[in-house]
Each structure stands twice: as C-alpha cells, then as structure tokens.
Amino acid sequence: MSSLRSITLATLTKDIRLEWRSRDAINSMLFFSLLVVVIFSFSFDPNAEESRQIAGGLIWVAFLFAAVVALNQTWARELRNQVLDAYRVSPAPANALFVAKALGNFILVSLLEAVMAPLFMIFYNLRPLGPAWQLIPVAILGTWALVVNGTFFAAMSLRTRSREIMLPLLLFPISIPAVQSMVEATRIILAGDGSARFWIVLLLTYDVVFTTACLALFETILQAE
Amino acid sequence: MNSIKFLYAAYIATWLTHGFYLVSLVSRYTRWRQMKVAQSSGVYVQNHLVFAILVTILCCLPAGVPAILYAAQVNGKLQAGDIAGARTASKKAKMWCWISVGASLAGGLVYLLIAVGVAGSTSR
Amino acid sequence: MKRAFPILAALTALLLAYAFYEAMWVAPMERTMGDVQRIFYYHVPSAWTAFLLFTVNLVASVVYLIRRNAKADAVAVVCAEVGVVFCTVVLVTGPIWARPVWGIWWTWDVRLTTTLVLWLIYVSYLVLRRFSDSSQTPKLAAVLAIFGALDVPLVYFSIWFFRTQHPQPVIGGGGSIDPRMLHVLLINWLAFSCFAFLVCWARYRLEWLHREAEEEEALASLHGPSQ
Fold first, then answer.
1. Mean pLDDT, to the nearest integer, of A20-25?
2. For residue C178, what pLDDT is reported?
3. What does the pLDDT look like over B36-80, one tens digit per residue?
4. How does residue C171 score in pLDDT terms, banded at 50, 70 and 90?
5. Which candidate in A68, B53, C17, C86 could, as Cys together with C50 as Cys, close a disulfide (CB 3.0–4.6 Å)?
6. φ and ψ at A93, to 5 degrees?
C-alpha cells in the first residue's frame, strides 16, 4: 500500500517538475482558456438576467474544451520516451501510474479553471444568488469526473488513428450525466433557485463509480498497448 | 388526415434504415468474394454486382437486367482463367449500370417538364 | 446449418408481413392520437430489440475480458452494429411520431434521451473499433462497453430528476395498455427479434470470413514476400 502511494507521489512530482521546467504547454493552454471565454462572451451576449440562466452551461462547456486540450497531451511525453514499456515490465502497480497521471491532470485543469472562472464572473457580471460555497464541491467533483475518464480514454486512444479526435469522441458521450449535473448545479447555485444537493450527490456517485472502474480496468488497458 | 403521412414516413424510414444496413452487408460480402477470387487468380476485377442489383430495383429495370447478367459473369470468368473476358464483362456491366441511372434521370426530367408544362397551361 | 438460413429468412419475412398487417389493420384505433399511433408498433419493438442487443454486447464483452474468447468478441461486434441500426430506427421513428401528436420534433424526456446517449456511446464504440488497428482492439472495445453500461443508469437517473424539475410531455405515455394492442405489440416484437437474429447471424458469418481472410493474409506474409 505504501509503495503504491510512494510511486504515485514520485510520478506526480516528476510530472509537475517537468511541466514547470518548460512552461510552454501550460502557458498556451492558459491563453487558450482565455480565448474560449472571450469568444463565448461575444457569442452569448452577457445580458444580466439571462446570463445567470445559461452561465452554468457556458462555463462548463468552456472547461470541457480546455480539459480536452490538456488531456490530449497527457500521455505524449510517455509515448515519446517509451515510458509505458518500462512501466509494463516493472513490478510497479499500473494504478500508481494512472492515479499520478489523473492527479497531475486534475491539478492542471483546476489551474485552467481558476483562471477562467473569475474571467467569466467579470465578463458576465455574475453574482451567485445561492450558497456560493457549494460551487467548490461542484467544481472539484466535476473536474475529477472529466479528468478521471479523460485520462483513461486518452490511454485507450494511444494506439488509434486520429488520436486527438478519438479522445473527445469517447469522452463526451460517457460524460453526459456528469456534464448535466455540473451544469444544473451551477445554474441552480447562480440563480439561487432550489437545492443543488441532488446534483452534487449524483456527481459524487458518478465519480465513485468511474474512479473504481478506471482503477479496476487500467491494468487491462496498459497491457493492451 | 395529414398525420397519416407521418405513419407511412415512419414505416418507410424503418425499412430504409434496415435496407441500408443490409445493402452494406451484401456489398461487404461481395467485396470479400472478390478478394478470394483475386487471391486465387492473382487479379482483382470489380464485378459491380451490388450496383447492378440496386439500379435494377431503384432505377430503370430494362437497362438493369443486362447489367446484372454481365456482372454475374465476371467471377465465373475469373475463376476459369479468362481475365480479358472478365474485364470486358465488368466494363459492360458498369456501362449498363450507368445507362440505367441515366435513363431514370432522363425519364424523371421528362416527367418534370411535362408536369410543369401541364400545370402552366392549366393555370392560365 | 446453412440450409436453415433461407428457410428461416422466408419464415421471418412472413412473420414480419403478418405483424405489419396486424399493426396496420387489426389493431384498434387509438382514441386520442388516431392512426398515427400505429408507429408505436414499430417504435417500441425496435427499442426493446436494440436494448436486448446492447445487453448481449455487454455480456459478450465481459466474457471476452474474462476468457479472451474470440467468438465472444465477434458476437460483441455483431450485436453492437445491429444494435446501432435498431437504435437509429428508434431515434428516427420517435420524432416522426412526436411531431403530429405532440407538435414537437424532440423533447428531452427520459426514454428518448437515454436512447440517444446509448446510441452515441455505441457509435463511439464502433468508431473505436474501426480506428484502432492494434490486435488489442477487442480488449479496448470491451472496456468501453463496460463503461457504457455503467453510464446508462446514471444517465437515466439524471434525466429523470431533471424532468421532475422541468416537466414536459412524456412521449409514448405511460399507463395501462389495451390487451389487443399489447397482442399486436408482442407479435411485432417477435417478428423484429427474429429479423434481428437473422441479421446478426449473417453478420457473424461475414465477420468470421473476414477474420479467416486476415489470418490467411498474415500467414502468407509470414511465409515470405514471394510476389
């Protein structure tokens, strides 16, 4: 058990250190997120009352696109340096690699969201009319839902043609209940109408179910490359 | 009642969908057959059989029949070793298929012109 | 075995024709919707058949993951393809029915939306199969089928709750059904199930032919590039 944790931690810190040393990828993703927010603001006129209704959907669609951009390069470094082969022959449990990757992606996507969310608030003049603190569990659970499946499907797409389009193709249908929950919860909290509790619980269920599935089946996927 | 059209549309749509899939299965099968024949004879010649059957049913029947007849000869000739004969049969089959398509398009155009002409003359 | 196929095909065609006759003329006319309601006899059996096929695909995928049985994988592919065809029929006949009866082409009601998501998941399954060249495609596809199966209850739940918050007309209605209509419905379901079975059988044979051809090619290239 402790070896799982130490391997995960080692892989995670290695990834963060590598990303930090060449900040190109992060910078371009941050700029991409900003562009997405600006384009959405042009396309969906942020007139105060209606914006509160649609902002929930808009913000999560923007996050979804940013997440896909981030996820697409998840395994790129591993592929370039044959790290996956090394992992396959090492006695390290495959789950350690998966958890490390997923956590790394989670941190990256959360960073992107931390940049985009205030911008959305500014451009759309949003003030949450409901309990604003609830946005935090929604953001955490929602991001994890996208990231855990996204990392898994990115690994699945490694040996396919058109790898970059394969990831969203696989991810979007499966993520529909999670996206609906995130959007509804955000809309309810922003508009202050009703309780978002059901959606938060559904997000939690989704996270538990799919994290378990990913952990159980990652070994199979890893061997399959 | 106008809504009856929706009933027919739904039933037709159902069978069209199934029909597309079945046609795709048949064409995949004929392609497999042609591959087999190509492996044994070393040469790959298209037999246009699926195309011929489709145009016979959907377009012009009189032109479709020779198309089917020629298309059916291709595989036999290939297996018998008559490669030149197979190629001629394949070309003729393709020609009759396109004749069938052209005939039905021309027929449709003529029908349209007559219908518009009649409508024009009666509206006066 | 091979001779049975044309006989079964003829019987199924007869059964389908009989079921069509029942649906069009024998079934009683519905009070509120009129004759358009007869679409129901094609829409619902197609839905049941599609769900059945997707379930078989799930079982075959799990069997493949446990036992690596090539036949299970072939069954999975076949059921996914034919299931997508039937699911397409459901998604096409649904709006065609909804438009004259409820005035709208589409509504985000529980059943129609769940069917749409199921269709999306299985289309992505077929795309994965087509785009993945590696010999491990069956494993990846099986895992995707499992993920899809886990997803569907969540989809159903989330839309069901959404609907209780934002009610809208339910397509297809609930409630009890006239026993004569049920009879016609079941006959159509039997006919479409036989049809689905035949199509699956044909597709399965085709799949085996393709796999044998691939094996032969692989063996031939191993024995040396003589050409």
1. 73
2. 78
3. 877 776 777 777 888 888 888 777 777 788 888 888 888 778 777
4. low
5. C86
6. -65, 140
Q: To probe the interface with A, which of C73, C143, C160, C164 has the most A CB atoms within 10 Å?
A: C143
Tell me the pTM: 0.86
Which residues on A lie below 8 Å from C158 (Cβ)? 177, 180-181, 199, 202
- Taking only the tens place, the pLDDT of each residue in A200-210 is 999 999 999 99
Q: How far apart are CA B105 and CA B97, in angstroms?
A: 13
Q: List, in order, residues 6 or more apart from A41 with CB less than 8 Å away.
A: A123, A124
Which among C89, C101, C210 has CB closest to B14? Answer: C89
Mark yes or no for CB contact C158/A169 under 8 Å. Answer: no
Nearest to A206 among C136, C154, C165 (CB): C154
Over residues C29-50, the pLDDT tens digits come to 777 777 788 888 899 999 999 9
Distance CA A191, CA A175 (A): 24
Query: How far, in whole angstroms, is CA A93 from its chain's centroid?
Result: 23
The DSSP call for residue C34 is: B
- Tell me which amino acid residue B6 is: F
Q: Based on the number of CB atoms within 10 Å of its own CB, is C113 exposed (0-12), middle (13-18) or buried (19 or more)?
A: buried
Per-position b or e across B65-101, b if 16+ CB within 10 A of its CB: ebbbebbebbbebbeeeeeeebbebbebbbebbebbb
**Domain boundaries along the sequence of chain B:** 3-123
Task: Give the closest-approach CA distance of B29 to chain C in angstroms.
Answer: 7
- List b or e across A131-167, with b for residues whose CB sees 16 or more CB atoms inside 10 angstroms: eeebbeebbebbbbbbbbbbbbbbbbbbbbeebeebb
B7 and C36: CB-CB below 8 Å?
yes
Mean pLDDT of chain B: 82
In whole angstroms, give the CA distance from residue C77 to residue C67.
Answer: 16
**SS3 at position B22:** helix
Q: A87, A95, A110: which is closest to A16 by C-alpha?
A: A110
ipTM of model: 0.87
Return the pLDDT at C175: 59
Q: Any idea of the CA torsion for A56, A61, A67, A72, to the nearest 10 degrees?
A: 170
Q: How far is CA A126 from CA A60, A90, A122, C104, in A?
A: 15, 50, 7, 33
Parent domain of A76: 2-223
Contact C99, C105 (CB under 8 A): yes
Span between the terminal Cα atoms of chain B, in Å? 30
The per-residue b/e assignment along A182-202, b for 16 or more CB within 10 angstroms, e otherwise, is bbbbbbbbbbeeeebebbbeb
3-class DSSP state of A160: strand
- Total domains in the fold of chain A: 1
